[in-house]
Amino acid sequence: MNRLAVADEGRWHLPPHAHVIVHETSDGNEFITIYDCGAAQKPPSAQLIGNLVRVDAAHELLDQPTGYIAKLRESSVLERQDADHWVIRGP
Questions:
Q1: I need a labelling partner for 45 at 20 to 30 A (CA). Which of 15, 28, 70, 79 fits?
Q2: pTM, to two decimals
Q3: Where are the chain's structural domains?
Q4: Are 77 and 89 in contact (CB under 8 A)?
């Protein structure tokens, strides 16, 4: 999973100010890009195809023309539900 720190099998740590950008794709999936921080001038920490089912961590949601951005407000974990589904969970 690119450069995210592994929490355990099927789970990866997300930093407290991560930005998760979700773009809808033409085939019904989502293209998910994770940045450590919105202000950081560096490449994304992870990119994946699937569906972000929900965000159960403190966050701000911003709607975009092609999807949305979840700006996390606490350390959290990206958890794989199955091959195509993901959840972000808080502490």
A1: 28
A2: 0.92
A3: 6-89
A4: yes
Q: What span, in angstroms and rounded, lies between the C-alpha atoms of 13 and 64?
A: 25
CA distance 49 to 29: 7
pLDDT tier for residue 1 given thresholds of 50, 70 and 90? low
Say if CB 3 and CB 45 are below 8 A apart: yes
Counting Cα atoms < 13 Å in the Cβ hemisphere of 48 gives: 21
Contact at 8 Å (CB) between 33 and 1?
A: no
Residue where the block lists tokens 């809808």:
24
CB burial of residue 64 (10 Å; 0-12, 13-18, 19+): exposed
